[in-house]
Amino acid sequence: MVLAAGLGTRMRPLTERVAKPVLPVLNRPLLHWTLDLLARHGVNEVMVNLHHLPQTIRSAVGNGKAFGLKIRYSHEREILGTAGGPRHVRRWLGQDPFLLVNGDVLCDLDLSRLVEWHVARGALATLALRRNPDPRRYAAVRTNAQGRVVCLPGVRRRRAGRAWLFAGVQVVEPRLLERLPEGPRDSIRDLYAPLVDADEAILGLEMRGTWLDMGTPELYRCGQLAALARGFAGVGPQKALVDRRAKVSKGARVTRSVVGAHAVIERGAHVQGSVVLGGAHVGAGAHVRNAVLAWGAQVPPGDRVRGGVVTAAATPQ
Q: Is the pLDDT reported for residue 137 higher than 80?
């Protein structure tokens, strides 16, 4: 199951037009990368929950045939949360362990290894963990030497252990959901925290590979540039990714940037360290640095943009 029902509040103004899971990432909807990853690891059926701008997700993904998947949708009139959403489709999930994946991260984690590790140890749930790059931004999940989760954000019973970042990918035994009543529920607070307090087998496994948070416009920009530099999923490594339907005039420069379809970069302009979405226009001699240009944004000739998001109204935010 892919969690795609959030409002994308931190990603505004970009999520005023499309749901966050289908924002363009390396010139493809973000959710496409997740579905490709699931298919590579043997998944054949996926449930996607919806709430904010649901048609933008349906239009971008369809029935899943393009990914070799069968995709179904669960439309939530109210957002049910990371546990309430799966609880709502408990019958569809069946009896076998299932993958639960956040729809707003870009990653290439070894999902097969995560599932195998979970099954071999008889866990109730297994969380994919990463080294925590910024404990001030990401609350820590702590594990003991055996990989058992001993502390979660919001758990009053604090215990020592190695601190990790939860990557938003997990394997869950569906019977756990029956502990919860229907309605909005959070997986960490409402499902896992009581089990950790009771010393139940909630495990964590360190996962290597690319993992990039796309939670804010600045993370969205930096994450794409990092993925491009690393050569994510066969794209790159390269200094720039320019859609073949974009127009970059002779004498214009595009460095360390991603440029979408039908964007226009005029003569003498320089786009550096930026993400330029479809239909944006950078005028002659303009310089755009470390910014996100939304769909249809206009940068006048000779103008200078440094950071932020430029919308179609040409207002940096």
A: no
Asked if residues 236 and 229 have their Cβ atoms less than 8 Å apart, the reply is yes
The Cα–Cα gap between 83 and 3 comes to 10
CB atoms within 10 A of CB 253: 14
pLDDT digits (tens, 9 = 90+) for 250-292: 999 999 999 999 999 999 999 999 999 999 999 999 999 999 9
Q: Domain count for the chain, please give it.
A: 2
Specify whether 57 is located in the same domain as 122.
Answer: yes
d(CA 112, CA 207): 11
* Token reading at 75: 């439309």
CB neighbourhood size of 210 (10 A): 16
How far from the centroid of its chain's Cα atoms is residue 313's Cα? 27
Q: pLDDT (tens digit, 9 = 90+) per residue, 159-183? A: 667 778 899 999 999 999 999 999 9
Residue at token pair 């069946």? 94
Strand ranges across the sheet with 292-293: 240-242, 257-259, 275-276, 292-293, 309-310
Establish if 316 belongs to a structural domain: no
pLDDT of residue 75: 96
Range of the domain at 229: 217-310
For 12, the token pair is 């505004």
d(CA 81, CA 49): 10
Secondary structure (3-state) at 100? strand
* Mean pLDDT on 75-103: 95
pTM for the predicted model, two decimal places = 0.91
